[in-house]
Design goal:
This protein is of the alpha+beta class. The protein has helices at 2-18, 289-301, 319-340, 364-370, and strands spanning 22-23, 44-45, 55-57, 78-83, 91-100, 105-113, 119-121, 128-130, 133-134, 136-142, 150-154, 164-170, 176-184, 195-200, 205-208, 269-271, 306-312, 347-351, 372-379. The chain has two domains: 18-208, Jelly Rolls, CATH 2.60.120; 249-379, OmpA-like domain (60s Ribosomal Protein L30, Chain: A), CATH 3.30.1330.60.
Length: 382
């Protein structure tokens, strides 16, 4: 009997670790007691420090939150998430009952719409505002709650005001044990704004066969292609080569001159200059894109390099807040590089909080120096 129980345990554990053909979400219909600023059961709030969680909206005609009149598409309640004019936005997460496996293909469906009325206080003016602008719905994968390791899917802006079913397909590059649902601004972002997304009836995640891809050494079937254009290639380049052809000359960075492959060493730390965030926020200032693009170009050109992105806070805030903020800022840099195309396996976000100050003091100069994000070279050989 003991042997049988042990065998069943290992079979179950193996199934969880290796993933399943169908992964059910816990409370995918977002059922709960209707409540404002309190995420539905089985989900964890992943919003910003100092901001309220999402809302569980009621179906009842006699009760509404923020003047939202929409009725649930499935069950009795549904989820409402907002984006705000102070560059904060709402998200929720949960651990999955099986892994999303790297290289596998998955599909799911979810009901989404927008409310024409979603009244709440503006974070910038302090006055009542209508959070009715369209936003996008994002799905992230991660390995701990609220850790956005890989962006798996992003919808177009959700402008429909009646429920519509959205079919979602994605293929993770790395394994994930956590899924995150997020409301985000329509991209490209120019200015933050007040908007909302209503969410209901998220299906199980189903593993499916990946679409067939024509191998590079196979000739296309003329019946499958309307027009086949001839592409002129240099004489020394094999047209069927699977290797990525890189520019012959690497443009040296103008800001992070330390990113020189001939000089960087394992364990070396490089401060990221000209990287700025909004106050008490992980939102990256748009003027910081130039230095982030230099990091991307370096990582893209040298595919064997692996780095840590370390966030540091100054000595002013409490330790827990400093750790959360520093990790969120490191993760924002990692997310930027992943969205540009860098493999998540080559990026490690770390939040050091205020445990490693450069200057043991609290003043404007010391705060500015201690509050930083750094690159640490973990490997130059892959």
């Amino acid at each position: 009997m003991r042997i049988l129980i042990t065998l069943l345990f290992w079979i179950t554990l193996s199934s969880v670790l290796q993933g399943q053909d169908e992964i059910p979400l816990q409370n995918g219909s977002f059922e709960d007691i209707p409540k404002m600023s309190n995420q539905p059961r089985d989900w964890r709030d992943c919003g910003f420090l100092g901001e309220t969680p999402p809302d569980v909206h009621p179906r009842s005609d006699s009760l509404s939150f923020w003047d939202v009149q929409q009725k649930a598409q499935d069950g009795r309640t549904f989820l409402g998430m907002v984006v705000r004019d102070n560059e904060t936005y709402e998200s929720i997460a949960q651990y999955l009952r099986a892994l999303l496996e790297a290289g596998e293909c998955y599909e799911m469906s979810i009901q989404l719409c927008r409310s024409m009325v979603y009244r709440s206080q503006s974070r910038l003016t302090g006055r009542m505002a209508n959070y009715n602008q369209p936003a996008v719905f994002r799905i992230y994968g991660g390995n701990s709650l609220c850790s956005r390791r890989e962006l798996l899917f992003e919808t177009p802006e959700i402008s429909n005001t009646d429920w519509e079913e959205y079919f979602i397909e994605f293929k993770p590059h790395v394994d994930h044990s956590v899924i995150i649902f997020e409301a985000f601004y329509k991209t490209p972002i120019l200015f933050p704004y007040n908007g909302n997304i209503l969410v209901d009836n998220a299906s199980s995640i189903r593993k499916v066969d990946c679409p067939e891809e024509i191998a590079l050494n196979e000739e296309p079937n003329p019946r499958d292609t309307k027009v086949v254009e001839k592409v002129q290639t240099p004489a020394n380049v094999n047209a069927r080569s699977t290797q990525k052809v890189k520019p012959k000359v690497f443009k040296a960075p103008e800001i992070l001159k330390e990113l020189d492959i001939a000089k960087v060493e394992k364990g070396q730390t490089i401060p990221i200059k000209n990287l700025n965030f909004e106050a008490d926020s992980a939102s990256i200032n748009r003027q910081s894109e130039k230095v982030l693009n230099e990091i991307f170009e370096f990582m893209d050109y040298y595919p064997d390099v692996v780095i840590e992105i370390g966030g540091h806070a100054n000595l002013k805030p409490k330790q827990k807040y400093a750790e959360q903020l520093s990790l969120a800022r490191a993760q924002s840099v990692v997310n930027y590089l992943i969205e540009k195309g860098i493999d998540p396996e080559r990026l490690k976000p770390v939040g050091y909080g205020n445990t490693k100050p450069i200057i043991e003091s609290v003043n404007k100069i010391a705060n500015r120096i201690n509050q930083r994000v750094e690159i640490k070279i973990l490997s130059v050989e892959g």
